């Protein structure tokens, strides 16, 4: 654990220093795009954070290669080189898109190319640890791997709309996934705690922690498509790489030979379930966005201002509150899966989940109740005492203004 912590610390420090350098460089040469209608910030802000994050990842992995504890990972350099090559491709693609706004088909083709490189050079879904089942063929493994990586990259990229959102969510999600992976290898590989999946998770935790101070509200710099796609690619690669570390025969349900989940009905599903639960919020936003755009006859990658984080802002949350709500939902949906893996009893996971869902739901919809109370108070206030702020919360006044009527003066025949 200490060796992984040192790598994460190195990634954090390097990324933070590089973020400051990239920020100053971007300001000096005015490398920031104009503000778009869907943007939540009000002043031009550089979107080159992905550059600092990429070099932070590369530097941390280079440091790990010099550490004898990680030698087993670099004995076969193909997978790690494939991930670094795909990361470089996706970062270059993201930088170009942030600067000149590429066509969505070009971006999608580049994402498939990067995912294909990773799958082709050995990081694939080799096993689905559900009661000893494995992927049926090499081509099926390749296809599943490529589509999984592309899906996760876009899901992460779609939620990148508020200061600190992606960096914080990825930090929490990868932190939970790292703890799960470390506990898993203690059972499946008790004599070797070092593998590619845990290294990627540790590096990504450090990189996100190093970039978050620059991205915290009000953000000095955004990670841009380059950073968001990088985070998604590494999260997917880490989750996929861990399937190669698991012996499916060691995971039985209720069997005497099983090493994992023998005392829990769902224990054998955790290796498959956890990577999706830590991504459930981004995947939900991605699915809703694609459905919404296809139903409107638009490209699934066309931009709009109807993402979940936009809806939270429209409900009355501040940017900070909306981001913290995303963080909370990520914790509530991922930690119970970790509890299912750690504890024999389901009650720890169930209790945490129920309390968390109730708390997060109340926090999510709190502004609606506050707004409703203001609307009622505005409607009950006498005309001559109504302030401009109260009229803002009075839907009757809003409707009358829209119809060209004076405030509080209802047209003839208005029945409500």
Features:
416 residues; mainly alpha; 16 helices; 0% strand
Topology:
Elements: H1 2-28, H2 49-65, H3 71-74, H4 78-100, H5 104-120, H6 138-158, H7 165-188, H8 196-215, H9 224-241, H10 270-277, H11 280-295, H12 308-315, H13 319-342, H14 347-380, H15 388-392, H16 395-402
Helix pairs in contact: 1-2, 1-8, 2-4, 2-8, 2-9, 4-5, 4-9, 5-6, 6-9, 6-11, 7-8, 7-9, 7-13, 8-9, 10-13, 13-14
Plain-language structure description:
The protein is 66% helix and 0% strand. With 416 residues, the protein is mainly alpha-helical.
Q: What is the overall pLDDT average?
A: 81
Q: Give the uncertain stretches in residue-range form.
A: 251-268, 395-416
- The amount of helix comes to 55-70%
- Report how far apart the termini are: 67 Å
How large is the radius of gyration? Answer: 24 Å
* Structure class: mainly alpha
Give the DSSP E fraction (strand runs of 2 or more residues): under 5%
Largest sheet: none
- Please count the helical segments: 16
Q: Per the principal axes of the C-alpha atoms, what is the gross shape?
A: globular
Order of helices and strands: HHHHHHHHHHHHHHHH
* Strands, total number: 0
């Amino acid at each position: 654990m200490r060796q992984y912590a040192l790598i994460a610390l190195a990634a954090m420090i390097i990324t933070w220093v590089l973020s400051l350098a990239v920020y100053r460089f971007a300001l000096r040469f005015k490398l920031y795009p104009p503000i778009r209608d869907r943007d939540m910030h009000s002043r031009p802000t550089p979107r080159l954070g992905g550059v600092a994050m990429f070099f932070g990842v590369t530097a941390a992995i280079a440091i790990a290669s010099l550490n004898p504890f990680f030698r087993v990972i670099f004995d076969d350099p193909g997978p790690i080189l494939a991930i670094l090559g795909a990361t470089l491709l996706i970062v270059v693609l993201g930088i170009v898109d942030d600067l000149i706004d590429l066509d969505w088909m070009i971006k999608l083709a580049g994402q498939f190319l990067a995912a294909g490189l990773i799958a082709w050079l050995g990081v694939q879904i080799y096993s689905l640890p559900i009661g000893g089942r494995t992927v049926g063929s090499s081509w099926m493994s390749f296809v599943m791997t490529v589509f999984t990586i592309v899906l996760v990259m876009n899901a992460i990229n779609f939620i990148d709309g508020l200061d600190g959102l992606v960096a914080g969510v990825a930090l929490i999600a990868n932190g939970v996934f790292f703890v799960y992976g470390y506990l898993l290898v203690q059972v499946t590989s008790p004599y070797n705690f070092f593998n590619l999946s845990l290294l990627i998770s540790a590096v990504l935790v450090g990189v996100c922690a190093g970039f978050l101070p620059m991205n915290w509200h009000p953000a000095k710099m955004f990670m841009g498509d380059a950073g968001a796609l990088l985070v998604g690619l590494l999260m997917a690669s880490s989750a996929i790489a861990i399937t190669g570390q698991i012996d499916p025969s060691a995971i039985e349900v209720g069997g005497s030979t099983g090493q994992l989940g023998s005392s829990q009905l769902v224990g054998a599903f955790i290796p498959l379930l956890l990577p999706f639960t830590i991504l459930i919020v981004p995947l939900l936003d991605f699915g809703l966005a694609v459905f919404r755009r296809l139903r409107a006859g638009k490209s699934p990658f066309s931009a709009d201002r109807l993402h979940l984080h936009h809806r939270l802002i429209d409900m009355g949350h501040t940017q900070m509150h909306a981001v913290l709500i995303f963080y909370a939902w990520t914790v509530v949906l991922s930690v119970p899966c970790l509890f299912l893996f750690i504890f024999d009893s389901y009650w720890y996971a169930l209790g945490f989940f129920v309390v968390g869902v109730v708390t997060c739901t109340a926090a999510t919809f709190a502004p609606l109740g506050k707004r409703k109370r203001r609307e009622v108070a505005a409607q009950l206030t006498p005309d001559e005492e109504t302030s401009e702020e109260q009229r803002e919360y009075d839907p009757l006044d809003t409707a009358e203004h829209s119809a060209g009527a004076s405030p509080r003066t209802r047209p003839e025949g208005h029945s409500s």
